[in-house]
Amino acid sequence: MKKNDEIKLCKNKDCQKVLPKDYKHKLCESCRNKRIDKAKDIVKSTLVVGGTALGFVLTVITKGKFGSSNKG
Length: 72
Hints:
Layout: E1 8-9, E2 18-19, H1 29-61
């Protein structure tokens, strides 16, 4: 059996779908989409936590006067 005749499988241990011979990625389309969705969720969570922390820090630094309309 030549190297070109070998069957390509998805590298995800839970998937193992057969990939086309000329497919350029290691993961099937479904597994690639799941990985991208996970990365997006991590980025969103990080931004939410960072925004919350930034609001807390601004409140502490300005002693609660940040964004208040009381003048005097």
